[in-house]
Design goal:
With 349 residues, this protein is mainly α. It folds into two domains: 92 residues, Arginyl tRNA synthetase N-terminal domain (Gyrase A, domain 2); 254 residues, Isoleucyl-tRNA Synthetase, Domain 1. The protein contains twelve helices and six strands. A three-stranded antiparallel β-sheet has the order 1-3-2, with helices on one face. The protein has a three-stranded parallel β-sheet with strand order 4-5-6, covered by helices on one side. α5 links the parallel β4 and β5. Its EC number is 6.1.1.19. Keywords: ATP-binding, Ligase, Nucleotide-binding. It comes from Streptomyces cellulosae. It catalyses: tRNA(Arg) + L-arginine + ATP = L-arginyl-tRNA(Arg) + AMP + diphosphate. It holds the Pfam family Arg_tRNA_synt_N.
Length: 349
C-alpha cells in the first residue's frame, strides 16, 4: 500500500464515520496527509487527522482517533493502528507490504507517483522573464502533468534561443503578461556553460528564495564527479542500479520482489514517499522538493548496493532477487524524478 492509497483509506474511514453519525463534522477534509512517524510514534506511517477533526467534531482528539482506529483495523492492508500522544494515528501495514511497494513501483515504471488528482484542470503558470524562472516553470509544468493537469506557460517575453537550445526551456510559451509570476531569486550568472543537466540542477535544487550557485569551467561543483556533488550522487546511484541488472543477468538471475530485511527501511520509506513528494511539488510549485527527495533516495540506496549480487561462489538466492528488485525500483524512481526536472538519467556514468 502506497502513501497515496493509505491516505485514501484513512479518508474513506473518516467519511464512513461521518456518514454513520460517529463524527459530527460538517465538512470532511479533501485529503489526509500520512508520513513516517515522528518521535514517539510507531508503525509505518502516522497521521494527525484526528487532531484536525477534534474541534469541528466537538470531541477530544484521542476519542476521534479511537473512532477511526476501530475502522482502520478492518481495512485491507493494515495490520495494526496505535493512538499516541495527543491523538496521532500510527499505522502498521500488513506483511508483504514491502514487496507490494516494489512491485507497484516496477509496474508503473517512470510513472510511479503519477496520479489523476488534477485531471481536467487547466493551470496557468506565469514566469518572470529570467532564465531561472523559466527553467523552474518548465519543471513545475512537467510535475503538474504527472498529476493530470494541463499547464499553460506564460511570460512577458519569449525565451532566449540559448535557453531553449541548451537548457530545454519550451518554445511554446505564450508571450503575454500575467499575475503572480514565478519569481525565484535570479541566476547570478549565465548558466548555459554548465550544459543542460548541471545547469538545470543548479537552478532547481535550491529553494526559490535561495540564491543559486553558478561557477564555471570543468572543475565546477555541479560538474564534478564526486560525492560532494548531489547531482552526481543521484545519477551515479541510478547508473549503479542499471549495472546491477546487467551483472545479475550475466549471473543468470532476475529481480523478484520479496522480503528484503529491516536494514533498508530508510530506502523503502523514501520510495513510498515519492507520490506524496510529487503531489507536494505540484501544489507548492517547488521542484526543489523533488530534487532533495531524489538525493535522499540515492543516499538511502547506497548501503543496499554492495549486498545485491552474490559474492564469490555464493549462489543467487531469493534475498538477492528481492534486493535486486528493490534496487531496480529505486533506480526507476531516480530516473523518473530526474526526467520531471528535465535532466537526463544515463545508464552508464
Amino acid at each position: 500500500m502506497t502513501p497515496v492509497e493509505l491516505s485514501r483509506t484513512v479518508l474513506h474511514a473518516v467519511r464512513r464515520a461521518v456518514d454513520e453519525g460517529e463524527l459530527a463534522v460538517a465538512v470532511v477534509p479533501e485529503r489526509v496527509v500520512v508520513a513516517p512517524p515522528g518521535p514517539g510514534g510507531c508503525g509505518d506511517y502516522a497521521t494527525n487527522v484526528a487532531l484536525q477533526l477534534a474541534r469541528p467534531a466537538g470531541q477530544p482528539a484521542p476519542a476521534v482517533a479511537e473512532v477511526l482506529r476501530t475502522r482502520l483495523l478492518h481495512a485491507d492492508g493494515i495490520s495494526d493502528v496505535v493512538v499516541t500522544g495527543p491523538g496521532f494515528l500510527n499505522i502498521s501495514l500488513a506483511g508483504g507490504s514491502d514487496a507490494r511497494l516494489v512491485r507497484d513501483t516496477l509496474r508503473a515504471r517512470p510513472r510511479y507517483g503519477h496520479s489523476d488528482t488534477l485531471a481536467g484542470q487547466t493551470i496557468e503558470l506565469h514566469a518572470a522573464p529570467e532564465v531561472r524562472a523559466l527553467v523552474l516553470m518548465d519543471s513545475v509544468a512537467r510535475v503538474l502533468r504527472s498529476q493530470g493537469a494541463r499547464p499553460e506557460l506564460h511570460c512577458t517575453r519569449a525565451p532566449e534561443d540559448a535557453w531553449v537550445r541548451i537548457l530545454g526551456v519550451p518554445e511554446d510559451i505564450h508571450v503575454r503578461p500575467g499575475r503572480d509570476p514565478l519569481r525565484p531569486v535570479p541566476a547570478p550568472a549565465d548558466p548555459t556553460p554548465l550544459g543542460r543537466d548541471a545547469a538545470r540542477w543548479a537552478l532547481l535544487h535550491p529553494a526559490q528564495h535561495d540564491r543559486p550557485h553558478l561557477g564555471g569551467g570543468q572543475d565546477d561543483q555541479h560538474l564534478a564527479q564526486r560525492e560532494t556533488n548531489p547531482l552526481f550522487r543521484v545519477r551515479y546511484a541510478h547508473a549503479r542500479t542499471r549495472a546491477l541488472l546487467r551483472n545479475a543477468a550475466d549471473l543468470g538471475f532476475t529481480p523478484d520482489p520479496g522480503p528484503v530485511g529491516t536494514d533498508v527501511d530508510a530506502l523503502l520509506h523514501t520510495l513510498a514517499d515519492h507520490p506524496r513528494v510529487l503531489a507536494a511539488t505540484a501544489a507548492h510549485r517547488a521542484p526543489d522538493r523533488l530534487a532533495r527527495h531524489l538525493v535522499a533516495v540515492a543516499d538511502a540506496l547506497a548501503p543496499l548496493l554492495p549486498s545485491v549480487l552474490p559474492l564469490g561462489d555464493e549462489k543467487p538466492s531469493a534475498a538477492h532477487r528481492a534486493r535486486l528488485a528493490l534496487a531496480e525500483a529505486a533506480g526507476t524512481v531516480l530516473a523518473g524524478g530526474l526526467t520531471l526536472l528535465g535532466i537526463d538519467a544515463p545508464e552508464h556514468l
